[in-house]
Amino acid sequence: MEIIDHSKSLLENIYFLSGPILAILGCLIFYQIRLAKKSIGLADQQIKEAKNYLRTISKREAAALAAKQVEVFVEKIIPMGNQLYEKKKEIDYPKFSGEIKNFTNDEIKDWDKDFTSCFNEKMLKLDFLDIQLTNTLEGFATYFTKGIADEEIAFSSIGSTYCRYVETNYPQISILRGCNNPNKYYNNLIELYRIWNSRLDKYKIEDELEKKQQKIREDINDIEKIKQQASKKDKIIKPLGTE
């Protein structure tokens, strides 16, 4: 069988051969497309696996950093807080019982004139322990507000203690922020406090709600018991002939 028909012109022979050639090329192109799709699918799968791996590594590192910061809090911040507490007792430092609001200098000055006067006088006698504690709390909080460490892990162990330190030293923190541009200072400390304090409030509300629900369940049980006792004592006299 001759591929080329010599009785026909060159153009006719080329036209005749173009059909099988195009069919072969089409098959090759289709095969390449299938290979490309398969390669893309494999690449997508590899990307997903890489993302999952990185996510797992990130979570593990965030958990490890959280544990490390909890260790820093226990070994460094708590002793500093205790030292500041003892110093306040020594100099009869006034206790702040106001409301936690915006951490502003003016807010403290306007809160209570007598407190502010005593506060300003005795703040200088704290030997900068308040500044040291506030700066350390700010550094501690930065790990969590920037997403470097897992704040949920840390909260479960030292969340309430952290919030108590911030509340106890609220006047000093507010004064140290200044009045010209307070938003420049201790933002991480304040942000973490608001997150953790809101969570503590939520847990407190949920706990109170559970106690009330439990009390309601107990009251319902008591009512049912009373109804049962009343039913046993309830005597009915039926008319004659109706039994």
How would you characterize the overall build of this protein?
The protein is mostly helical and 243 residues long. Helix content is 77%, strand content 0%. The protein has 7 helices and no strands. Helix 1 runs antiparallel to helix 4 and helix 5 crosses helix 7. The N terminus is likely disordered.
N-to-C series of helices and strands: HHHHHHH
**End-to-end separation:** 115 Å
Global mean pLDDT:
79
pLDDT < 50 stretches: 1-5
| Helical percentage | over 70%
Biggest sheet, open or closed, and with what strands and sense? none
Q: Indicate the overall shape.
A: flat
Residues in β-strands, percent:
under 5%
| SS-derived structural category | mainly alpha
H/I helix tally? 7
- The total strand number stands at 0
- The value of Rg in angstroms is 38 Å
What structural keywords apply?
0% strand; 7 helices; disordered N terminus; 243 residues; 77% helix; single chain; mainly alpha
Describe how the helices and strands are arranged.
Blueprint: H1 10-90, H2 105-111, H3 113-123, H4 129-145, H5 151-168, H6 170-176, H7 187-233
Helix pairs in contact: 1-4, 1-5, 2-6, 4-7, 5-7
Structure at a glance:
This protein is mainly α.
